[in-house]
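Aim 2 progress update. The chain analyzed this quarter is reproduced below.
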Amino acid sequence: MQITFEQVDYQGLNGKQKEAYNFQKVSAVLADFGIVTIRLSNDWNGADFIAQLHDGKTFLKIQLKSRLTFNKKYHDKDLFICFRDGKGNHDPWYLYPHAEMLELNQNMGYIGKEFWDEHEEYSKPKPSRGQKALLEPYLLKPGYTISL
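Predicted structure tokens:
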């Protein structure tokens, strides 16, 4: 029996396959920083996976998304949102605290109070320049610092 390995066409994957693919991709990035990930079969307190930092004591609850996302159901859950800005292997990953980034976006006027009250969620496939500036401190790269 022979198996030929070929790169997968991301767009050809279904939703569950895309989520599994993205989990594996971000897990590889986090592994470079000594972080181990544990995928959850069902969302737990809003989290898709848990990240254990190399200190062995710190755990992060992370919701994996395909875009910049805010949702009222994540409120008061100490969740981090992780997404990749693009679909390419070299596109950047962001990991941001949901509550803190939501407040920044509201204060900067990217999410209006009326919109938020009516829709209770906000997502954007391509963050604006201003939003990218707000996201810059949450770019997964050497030197990234999380405040807990």
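The chain has four helices and seven strands. Helices lie at 15-31, 98-107, 113-119, 129-135. These observations will guide the mutagenesis experiments scheduled for the next reporting period.
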